[in-house]
Amino acid sequence: MRASVREHVPLAPYTxxxxxxxxxxxxxxxxxxxxxxxxxxxxxxxxxxxxxxxxSNLLVADAGFPGLVLRVELQGLAWSDDGDRVRLxxxxxxxxxxxxxxxxxxxxxxxxxxxxxxxxxxxxxxQNVGAYGQEIAETLTRVRAxxxxxxxxxxxxxxxxxxxxRSSVFNTKAVGRYIVLQVEYLLAKQGQPAIHYPxxxxxxxxxxxxxxxxxxxxxxxxxxxxxxxxxxxxxxCKSAGSFFKxxxxxxxxxxxxxASVPGQKVPRYPASDGRVKTAAAWLxxxxxxxxxxxxxxxxxxxxxxxxLVNRGGATAADLIGLAxxxxxRVHDRFGIPLVPEPVFxxxxxxxxxxxx
Length: 356
Hints:
The chain is an alpha+beta fold. The protein has 3 domains: about 5-70, Uridine Diphospho-n-acetylenolpyruvylglucosamine Reductase, domain 2 (2-Layer Sandwich); about 75-225, Uridine Diphospho-n-acetylenolpyruvylglucosamine Reductase, domain 3 (2-Layer Sandwich), CATH 3.30.465; about 240-355, UDP-N-acetylenolpyruvoylglucosamine reductase, C-terminal domain (Uridine Diphospho-n-acetylenolpyruvylglucosamine Reductase, domain 1, Alpha-Beta Complex), CATH 3.90.78. The protein is about 25% helix and about 25% strand. The chain is built from 9 helices and 20 strands. The strands form 6 sheets. It has a 5-stranded antiparallel sheet with strand order 6-7-12-10-11, with no helix packed on it. It has a 4-stranded mixed sheet with strand order 1-2-5-3, covered by helices on one side. Strand 8 and strand 9 form a beta hairpin. The radius of gyration is 20 Å and the shape is globular.
């Protein structure tokens, strides 16, 4: 086969957390043909498969992964006019923040608040990546993917992606079925930058009608202050971003949370089906976990309580121990089970069940 197969490759360098044991086999795929060759390699040997993109949303077990890790590195950007919009088709291996930068440079609206999010294009539909009032479901129109069930390349439209809050068909009903190859977005030529969140609004208190570039810069500044921007030399940078999802609860549960903290304003955001989204970071702080809280080399970021970081030499077991303590305290205080955002790789069934 043309694909170069490597063995016993440490996965920590391929993740933003810098944690994880070795992959039994590892293949870089920079073309669709290489992807197909890699799948054949795994199938003929009965190997489990892990598709790896930017590694920004993974916690890999210390034991590593016993099968084939396929790193999808398909490149390419194709732009075309579509009336008052521009259609962008991007290879799954393209750096996501680089794509956002190009959209902003071209004066295209719809992804400016998604600046600074680490990872690759292929990961954006999986989690329905979102931040500061925007999410990828607002601009994504199509996903080209390999369907492992039907053994063919397919195209999924927006509806077939089944987008929800930080979710899609790719990480819910069809986990492991699709390998994203390309993503298509439809971006507006005219509009107003999205500055709906208080953090961004504060950045522009004395500015009227900020442009796209200014909004992108502001988003990156805000992310940097919260240790949500990868910057060399920053001890808070070895993280997977937000480790816990913001809980979505019904009105009765939200009222119970409010009653437990009389006189305090509980963060509240609208969610689907008349439910309420609240802030995981606020719950964590109210449960007695402050910025910088640590358990050995695993710690809560000194900038934001939602980021768990590797201070240097942390293992997956260290991070799991910290996450377990945070979840316990929040559940004891509010009765809310925090759900992790990162994908857990190589962990036993008991750990997977505990956290999900």
